[in-house]
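The freezer alarm interrupted the setup, so I double-checked each line after restarting. Inputs confirmed:
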Amino acid sequence: MINFSFIKFRKIPLAWLLLTRQPLRLIVAIAGISFAGILMFMQLGFRDGLFDTSVTIHKLLDADLVLISPRSKSSISMSGFPKRRLIQTLALEDVEKTAPVNLTYLLWRNPENLKTRSILTLGFNPSDSLLLDDGFSRKADKLKNPGRVLFDKLSRPEFGPIEDWFLSEKKVETEVAGKRVLVEGLVELGPSFGADGNLITSRETYLRLFPANPKGSIEIGLVKLRSGSNPILVSEILNKSLPNDVRVLTKDQFIEFEKNYWKNSTAIGFIFSLGALMGFVVGCVVVYQILYSDVTDHLPEYATLLAMGYRLKTLFFVVAREGFLLALFGYLPAYFSGQILYSIVRNSTKLPIVMDANKTILIFILILVMCMGSAGIAMRKLVDADPAEIF
Amino acid sequence: MPKAINKKDKNSKTVSINNLSHYYGIDENKKQVLNNVNFFIEKGELVLLKGPSGCGKTTLLTLIGALRTCQSGDLTVLNNQLNGASRKTRQKLRRNIGMIFQGHNLLRCLTAEQNVQMGADLITKLTYLQRREVARKWLSAVGLEDHHKKLPNGLSGGQKQRVAIARALSANPKLLLADEPTSALDSVTGREIVSLLRKLAKEQNCSVLMVTHDPRISDMADRILNMEDGKIFNALSELR
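Predicted 3D structure, all chains:
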């Protein structure tokens, strides 16, 4: 039955033929739409990539839940909360272990030119697990001696040639917050919006470097759950049972929390969204031009179809279908070019720029809206097709 | 033999026109193009409409073809009163009227066969393949079965006009309207086209109203109407 009705309603694929029998115009249209699509892919890719760099450390943390102070706004403005709140979470069956972490910005002296610069410093108990990195616990052991630090080798070069010195077996000694430290190892984290460089040390050394830190106060509490527990559920339970001087987030929420800060309090989101919008507008203009001139060129033919007894609605559908086909034809090259350009950008800038489902779908919808919208405006020209004028 | 639209109206005329008048423009600029036109077309009749340019022939054709709204008078086409008819009625009626234009007006992006099938596609009760069969049949009837894959650009003027005839006939029309179908053709091809049109229309019992300047095809008409200044003269002059 279905097959039968398909055959009955099957018609000459007019929209398809209108497009494909004018290959030059079709190529121009596809080039225009793909260009707009690539522009949108790149702008949104850069935007998301930059936001992702703000959470490089957040993503590496070995935790299911993260406790922060409700007054904390982002990694550049963390407030402390009582460490005992973290210990209280152990009352729950689901909680396997916890790790208190201190975080602040301290002044690092470049050992080469002796200039100081602020560096993000994390303090934790070397016997706890801080990062997901496998080799990290071996390096962490070395922090058990006081005055030892691990330096992020991806930190900006303004902090000095630490990696080169360290790898050439040179003893890298410098000052942090006016106190002597020894670089005992290198880690790979990466700079972010807030931090030009990162430093990891033990809580003991941390408190020595930053004695003003209130006793028993930490900035981040990491909670590891037993396998099989639901982090969202446990975070809700903890949020209810703990006093409101602490906030419990899942790791994903913690990452979102940081990203949202940068999205809402900086112009980055706006700038790149504006770039994407421009791509969208360029695409609209191209598709509209193509469809409008297509309708204008074929106006006598459309009028002939009306004279033969076709409905205006049928002709509207032809133009709409042309718009839909253009969206499909234009999106595919944009998608594949986007993939290639993303991998080029990834390799040359280390920016974590990836083709995720979000962008894939969003940009397809944008291109579809662009093509169908332009088709809708071009359709108005169809009303000019007057069958009485063609004799 | 095509089926009659309605058995009750078996003996009624294809087109019947009484006191039809038509004006263009508004107020001071109002100009009368048709002045009390009266005539009819019988079933299966081939009627020629002649007259100097600007006398209202094309206007009359577009009115009969339900492409324009009828302003005053009585205009009945295939048993539909067109004075006061809705857009929908006119659009539906057009499906039963074949039209052949001076400039053939084929769809450039479609092959000869697909152009004819655009006409056949209006017959909703047939499947796609049946409609394609209809298109092939009509293309053969106009002698172009070997050219069915060609685009209009690859066809000569006469061939294009044949495709246009096939397209007009493929929707089983009861009435065929043609506006100077021979004007772009040389005399031999022109005669050929009209005699083909006449033959096919007669087979279908389809009435034809043809506007023409061409004196060489007068002998093929059942009747000739002369028009001047919006009026029809010797409307009943029988030639045969």
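Quick read of the result. The interface with chain B takes residues 4, 7-8, 10-12, 14, 17-18, 21-22, 298, 300-301, 304-311, 387-388, 390-391 of chain A (CB under 8 Å).
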